[in-house]
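Here is one record:
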Amino acid sequence: MIAFMQILGMLINVLVMLVIVQFVIGLLFAFNVINHSNQFVVQIYNSINSLLEPVLSPIRRILPQTGTIDFSPLVLILLLNALMIVLSNVAYS
């Protein structure tokens, strides 16, 4: 049971890192540090978006519209961390 929870925790950590990478690349695009002609970075960004969009879109529907700022990645990270805390408490009790 503990091994399963550790594997699940590792997968949650990978998902959190993907959210952070997506956020950073989005910021680099927004501030024109990286332009959209760099096909390698665009492919990485599109791949991460296609992985995270099914998870982020329900959160975006629930959150109120805040203009250009998207808080759904932050909410996802908080939910994943809360899930990891709950699962670790269940595994060790």
